[in-house]
Design a protein that fits this description.
Layout (H helix, E strand, L loop, with lengths): L1 E7 L9 E6 L9 E8 L4 H19 L5 H20 L9 E2 L1 E7 L2 E7 L3 E5 L3 E3 L6 H7 L5 H4 L21 E6 L5 E5 L1 H4 L4 H8 L5 H14 L6 E7 L9
Antiparallel strand pairs: 1-11, 2-3, 3-4, 3-5, 5-6, 6-9, 7-8, 7-10, 10-11
Length: 247
């Protein structure tokens, strides 16, 4: 397995409210773990929300007595949500803070995924397939047939999400279990990447055949050239490599 993660402030923002975690080593009962979180809130709140949620999530996973990956992740999502709501009450500066969360782990050649919000996971080979589905107002409009997916990328309400960690006391993540094919690359990203580069262009960059670190940097550079309107985060995983490299 190879993996690489990176986050970038982007071209327009003064702070980076994204947070990534990338480990090919075991975390609790999970043999590996990859996380992208995109915080929301004021100057102080958004970066705290993403970092605090991921750190809390990791602590819960490490201490979990469960072995089923979906059960472990579901528990961690629920308890991290409760913890962030409690954290928000500590200061008026934290009022309304929240974060997206997309999580994945590979267990015995099965890819397990959970997401809350509009950070995404894709499988990329000769084609690119978005596995997660955004919890956003625009996604609901697509499902209702009010707009098409092409126009959704630039819609004025693109950034309104309908589900996030830290917003409601009851939280529900969407779960996916997928088989990956030899040669597939797993890409996780915040919307600062997916809003700035269309899917086909992301696929072309990923399939250039470079090292994962070079591919990640190319994706970030392209997003910034296209406007860089938000923080940009990406994790790339090649699961079928025997060689192990540090994230």
């Amino acid at each position: 397995m190879k993996a690489y993660g990176k986050t970038d402030i982007g071209a327009k923002r003064n702070t980076n409210q994204d947070y990534v975690f990338c480990s090919m080593q075991p975390v609790g009962s999970l043999p590996n773990l990859f996380i992208v979180a995109d915080g929301m809130g004021g100057h102080k709140a958004g970066d705290l929300a993403s970092r605090y949620t991921v750190e809390t999530f990791l602590e819960i996973v490490r201490n979990s007595k469960e072995n089923n990956p979906i059960t472990v992740i579901e528990q961690a999502v629920r308890e991290a949500n409760t913890a962030l709501i409690k954290k928000a009450k500590e200061s008026i500066d934290y009022d309304g803070m929240g974060t997206t969360l997309v999580v994945s782990t590979i267990v015995e050649k099965e890819l397990y995924i959970a997401n809350v919000g509009d950070s995404r996971l894709y499988l990329v080979n000769n084609e690119i397939q978005q596995i997660t589905r955004d919890h956003s107002l625009v996604e609901e409009m697509i499902n209702l047939g009010e707009i098409d997916r092409k126009n959704a990328r630039t819609h004025e309400k693109k950034n309104i999400i309908t589900r996030a960690i830290g917003v409601d006391t009851e939280i529900e993540a969407d779960f996916f279990e997928v088989d990956y094919e030899p040669g597939d690359i797993i890409m996780m990203c915040s919307d600062g990447l997916s809003n700035m580069i269309d899917d086909d262009d992301m696929k072309d960059i990923i399939n250039q055949g470079n090292e994962l670190s070079d591919i990640a940097q190319s994706l970030i550079d392209t997003a910034n050239r296209n406007g860089g309107k938000d923080n940009i985060s990406v994790i790339l995983v090649q699961p079928d490599y025997d060689e192990v490299k540090t994230c």
